[in-house]
Amino acid sequence: MCAPRSSSAKGGAALLEETVISATVQQYCTFRVDHLLIGVEVWRVQEVIRDQPTTLVPLAPAEVRGLINLRGQIVTTIDVRHWMRLGPREEGGQAMIAVLRLDGEAVSLLVDEAGEVVSPSRDAFEPLPPTASERVRRLFSGTFKLPDRLLLVLDTCAISSINAHQRDAGLRRPA
Question: How far apart are CA 150 and CA 66, in angstroms?
Answer without folding.
Answer: 30
